Amino acid sequence: MSQYAFYILSALSVASALMTVFNRKPVYSVLYLIFFFFTLFGHYILLNAQFLAAVHLIVYAGAIMVLFLFIIMMLNLNKEVEPNKSIVAKFAAVISGGLLMIVVVSAMKGVDAAAINQHSEIGLVETLGSVLYNKYMLPFEMVSVLFLTAIVGAVMLGKKEIK
Amino acid sequence: MEYSELIFKVIFVIAVFAVSLLIAMYSTYAERKIAAFMQDRVGPDRAGPFGILQPLADGVKMFMKEEIIPANADKALFILGPSLMMLTACMTGVVIPWGNSLIINGQEYILQITDVNIGILYIFAVISIGVYGIMIGGWASNNKYSLLGAIRASSQMISYELAMGMAIISLVMMTGTLSLREIVLQQPGAHWNVFYQPLGFLIFLVCAFAETNRTPFDLPECETELVGGYHTEYSSMKLGFYLFAEYINMFISSAVISALYFGGFNMPFIGGLGLSHNMLAILGVVFFFAKIFFFIFFFMWVRWTIPRFRYDQLMNLGWKVMIPLSIVNMLLTGLFLLWRNGLFHF
Questions:
Q1: Which of B135, B154, B213, B295 has its Cβ near the most Cβ atoms within 10 Å?
Q2: Ramachandran angles phi, psi of A42, nearest 5°
């Protein structure tokens, strides 16, 4: 049964990801992207990573995409008229996109499909917590310092006049 | 899963769905009666004895009204908005432990739809999706008052979600689990979390008011400034869905508050009566609903007592009072846990 669920979910993910790119209205693009995050949520659940699934939904769909939608609504970007881009910009976009795809494909090349374990417990909150706070303690703390720096930087940039 | 358990789950899902709709329906009646009581009026009393059929009459009225979709509105999103609102409101009841377990023919049936080990996070995720219903509806109406209401609602919900999350983190630090059922089972008798986390409870309660858009935080639908807020352009049952979803949200947040901080289905002195397990479980459900009704009443009591905040006051309260307070609460909880485990000595 989980195999059928996987195929349906994957079809939905690919379709919504394509719709995000091909839709001409920005608000619809954002909504398709949110739907795409929902399908990813399903994939996490299929891999028995419930904690990651919930956090993924809270952080991406619940917070970051709300801000995306916010900006697009405020700027009233839902006009279908778009200025024509020059041919150089189009070529640059195709080449950089292709390069990114090569990187992603080569990263996936060495993956052993048999290693995907649906009963793995790595995504559950206890295992994830003990791994983060024991094995990866230093990187984890460094990331939190990095976040703090980003917050302070954003506040500094947001200030109108710096005294 | 056994066959009998599957049938039990199906019946239980339908029951939870029906009960939350029924309670939301009669919350509208209760709200009008309580408002009337507080303002020394009678309230609805025409439909049936004491006006008890008023919610049905209101429902019929909502369905019979003409449905208007504005000419410049984005039609698909205009319909999606209230649907999404209603969907997310009905989804949260899944992880709430309504009672302990029933033992029938030697088999144990847990009175909870599913006991996922990330219960609280699931509720958080669904609540954070709920804001899209308001945003999409407000934007698709193509009306500046609706848009302003939608933007107010979403920025308010994002701001208060932070403090709410941190209040929950301190609770999780105390209990050591994210599963709602385990949190409730850890509060037997009168060992309710509210006595161990009073500050966290206060923060959670204030944030629950803000998340459900209830007075004093109902700026998204502030009539004096925004006509009707995000649902200005809505009519007929689509408006009904928006209003109805608010009452379901209120019911669910009352249930979450009672489960997290007030012991859920636990009640002091009940263990000493020598009742059977099933009897205790049924009494537990009754107590749980009594707590929920108290909190629904509390929501309404506050609504008809306290005036609405100004918008800058709301933001100041969220960012400059609630979030620092919840961080302080987290630090205090951490220190308490260290002291309890004997990790430092004075």
A1: B135
A2: -60, -40
Residue B346 lies in a domain: no
User: Is residue B345 assigned to a domain?
Assistant: no
Contact B128 A34 (CB under 8 A): no
Helix (H) or strand (E) holding B76, with range, is helix B75-91
CATH architecture of the region A2-123: Up-down Bundle (1.20)
Domain boundaries, chain A: 2-123, 124-163
pLDDT tens by residue, B325-342: 999 999 998 888 888 877
pLDDT (tens digit, 9 = 90+) per residue, B52-100?
A: 888 888 888 888 888 888 887 788 888 888 888 888 888 888 888 887 7
CB B208 within 8 A of CB B253: yes
The overall average pLDDT reported for chain B is 83
**What's the pLDDT score for residue A148?**
92
Q: Which domain holds residue B196?
A: 3-340
CA of B126, closest CA in chain A: separation in Å? 8
Which tokens in the block code for residue A137?
Answer: 């303690």
Measured distance CA(B197)–CA(B174) in Å, rounded? 9
Residue range A58-93, pLDDT digits in tens: 888 888 888 888 888 777 665 555 666 788 888 898
Q: Please check whether residue B253 lies inside any domain of the structure.
A: yes
User: Which residue of B116, B139, B151 is in closest CB contact with A50?
Assistant: B116
Contacts of B116 in chain A (CB under 8 A): 50
User: Is A55's Cβ below 8 Å from some Cβ in B?
Assistant: yes
Alpha helices in A23-160 (DSSP H): 26-46, 50-56, 65-75, 87-109, 125-130, 137-158
What's the predicted TM-score (pTM) here?
0.85
